[in-house]
Amino acid sequence: MHFPGPWRVLKGLLITLLFTDSVHAITLDITDEQSIKDAASTTAYAMMTYYHGNETGHIPGAFPDKWWEGAALFLALLHYWHFTGDTTYNSELRVGLEWQAGDDDYLPANYSSWIGNDDQMFWGLAAITAAEFEFADASNVGSGYSWLSLAQGVYNYQTSEWDTSTCDGGLRWQIWTYESGYDMKNSISNGGLFQLSARLARYTDDSSYADWAQKIWDWSASSPLLDNSTWNVADSTETTNDCSTQGDDQWSYNYGTYLMGAAYMYNYTNGSSTWLTAVDGLLNRTLEGFIHDGTYILEEKLCEPSEVCNDNEILFKGLVSNWLSLTALLVPSTYDTILPYLQGSAKAAALSCTGHNNNTCGVRWYQSDYDGWIGMEEEISATSIFVANMIAFNQSAPVTANTGGNSTSVPDAGENDTSGDSSSLSAITTGDRAGAGILTVVFVAGWVGLMSWTVLGG
Ligand SMILES: *[C@@H]1O[C@H](CO)[C@@H](O)[C@H](O)[C@H]1NC(C)=O
Ligand SMILES: *[C@@H]1O[C@H](CO)[C@@H](O)[C@H](O)[C@H]1NC(C)=O
Ligand SMILES: *[C@@H]1O[C@H](CO)[C@@H](O)[C@H](O)[C@H]1NC(C)=O
Ligand SMILES: *[C@@H]1O[C@H](CO)[C@@H](O)[C@H](O)[C@H]1NC(C)=O
Ligand SMILES: *[C@@H]1O[C@H](CO)[C@@H](O)[C@H](O)[C@H]1NC(C)=O
Ligand SMILES: *[C@@H]1O[C@H](CO)[C@@H](O)[C@H](O)[C@H]1NC(C)=O
Ligand SMILES: *[C@@H]1O[C@H](CO)[C@@H](O)[C@H](O)[C@H]1NC(C)=O
Ligand SMILES: *[C@@H]1O[C@H](CO)[C@@H](O)[C@H](O)[C@H]1NC(C)=O
Ligand SMILES: *[C@@H]1O[C@H](CO)[C@@H](O)[C@H](O)[C@H]1NC(C)=O
Ligand SMILES: *[C@@H]1O[C@H](CO)[C@@H](O)[C@H](O)[C@H]1NC(C)=O
Predict the structure, then answer these.
(1) Buried b (16+ CB within 10 A) or exposed e, 194-214
(2) Nearest protein CA to atom 11 of ligand 6, as residue
(3) 334 sits in which H/E element
(4) For residue range 399-418, what is the model confidence (pLDDT) as tens digits?
(5) Which candidate, 410, 424, 439, 433, places its Cα nearest to that of 154?
């Protein structure tokens, strides 16, 4: 084509723009397996630039100011390796998952005085994922706990904390009385332990884990957290009024964790219709509540439009991406419903990865352009949504002990841990570490907000 006079300039500009774009965008063809692997490889590399645990002078798996995010990073790496076959980061993964193990229960002494139940639980979920993906046990690394025993250790610890002194049951958000969230029972802690129990039941085929999953589910449904007819999942409820009120902030990972647990229970029970109803109901609300209007793109609606998502919240879509992909495999009837949302989200996420001339990904996928945000969390979530799309090419589902899983079972794992005894802890104030855990629900209830401000200010 011939461009006359003034068009020349424009043509030059257009070519520059097109060229720049093709160099610095992640080009993702959702129908092409290699293209998805390449996109995931780019963002996995980027997220690992924030990880220094394998370098001299650094501690494996440690993110001192946001300890739980190590679990989020390793969960993304486990999915990445399992579905793409790329082993590049497996040694960091193995060493980091072991190093933070504590006494086989993910309550390492450096952090145990302020770890919340949800923080510990995410490490437990990473461990059971490692077992289910047949990541070889690390008997030759550090303390060498098996992945299954680490999940069992977290389960043993958290079920022992089940609190019937208020609300007829439930797990508190925080472990220690001096933490400001101690008076709360929330969905991510209870839904997290529900999911962990369901996964242990399926992996081991030991019905005692399923009994606990059922018990946590029933308690949740009897509380304001989970509504088993509308499938609303609230964020939190309070022990100070015996769980009579609801902090109803809507976060995708609260839905995602109950959905994932229900999917495991469905699969574990060989297709129970009760669990299928729960899966369908929760999946429907997840897709109704966290998809950008008129699209198939995941959106954390409470914080994305106003750009106030904190680091925790930026990770929620990534966790939900992982859990949607496993739901599609464990409950095959949901596959056709889920896939278009994984595809729509991944295409948009790829378009958001055009930052800084080096494929930096943003937060708001629905914008389909870089939105200026930068961080490990953005890269983890982008990696997770790319990898989730691998289920179109590799339907390798989580295994069980009966289908190839060989992680060593230690039913009483973690029970030798004495650091879990609060009396042996030095008094570290909440204020010292208030930024360290998952703090998304702090401001839900007025008095808790006030209390934390007092502590932080004092
Ligand atoms: C991309 O560039 C930004 C800005 O210079 C930098 O902070 C970031 O670390 C870079 N990312 C990668 C993966 O190199
Ligand atoms: C740490 O791991 C990264 C990959 O994530 C690798 O590039 C780097 O060389 C490793 N550093 C050391 C000291 O092993
Ligand atoms: C699918 O993934 C599994 C687990 O990572 C791997 O063993 C298998 O080789 C993969 N299959 C294909 C066809 O890529
Ligand atoms: C705890 O801190 C010590 C001293 O910094 C360090 O050597 C150790 O690796 C840390 N352990 C964990 C689990 O982070
Ligand atoms: C368990 O399975 C993993 C993955 O297939 C394998 O690497 C490992 O050697 C196995 N361990 C034992 C004790 O069989
Ligand atoms: C829903 O939860 C309520 C309250 O726990 C319970 O009584 C009822 O049986 C549950 N319904 C179903 C279908 O599970
Ligand atoms: C599911 O089916 C398998 C194979 O028939 C059986 O071994 C297992 O006990 C069943 N699980 C449940 C919870 O009924
Ligand atoms: C359980 O998950 C496996 C693996 O994806 C699948 O083949 C099987 O059909 C599922 N079970 C049921 C009852 O749907
Ligand atoms: C959720 O369920 C409602 C009622 O059955 C249905 O109209 C809607 O399309 C479903 N939404 C999604 C995203 O599947
Ligand atoms: C607890 O410690 C004893 C003594 O060291 C050991 O024999 C036992 O295997 C440990 N139990 C667990 C569950 O780690």
Answers:
(1) bbbbbbbbbbbeeeebbebbb
(2) 228
(3) none
(4) 999 999 999 999 999 998 87
(5) 410
Question: How many whole angstroms separate alpha carbon 178 and alpha carbon 181?
Answer: 9
Could you say which DSSP state residue 116 is in? B
8 A C-beta contact, residue 451 and residue 458: no
How many angstroms is it from 219 CA to the middle of ligand 6? Answer: 10
Helix axes 187-204, 207-222, angle to 10 degrees: 160
Let me know: does 260 contact 326? Beta carbons within 8 Å: yes
Q: Is 358 in the pocket of ligand 1 (CB under 6 A)?
A: yes
Helix (H, G, I), strand (E, B) or coil at 262: helix
First and final CA of the chain: distance in angstroms?
71
With a cut of 70, say whether residue 428 has pLDDT above it. Answer: no
- Distance from the CA of 280 to the center of ligand 8, in angstroms? 16
- Name the closest ligand to CA 340: 9
For ligand 1, mutation pick of 356, 361, 379 (most atoms within 8 Å of CB): 356
What is each CA distance from 366 to 300, 304, 362, in whole angstroms?
A: 10, 10, 10
Question: What spacing in Å lies between the alpha carbon of 385 and ligand 1's midpoint?
Answer: 20
Judged by DSSP in three states, 300 sits in coil
Which residues, listed in sequence order, are joined to residue 355 by a DSSP beta bridge?
360
pTM confidence score: 0.91
213, 419 in Cβ contact below 8 A? no
Q: Whose CA is nearest to atom 5 of ligand 1?
A: 356
**What span, in angstroms and rounded, lies between the C-alpha atoms of 452 and 189?**
19
Name which of 374, 284, 299, 363 is nearest 331 in CA terms: 284
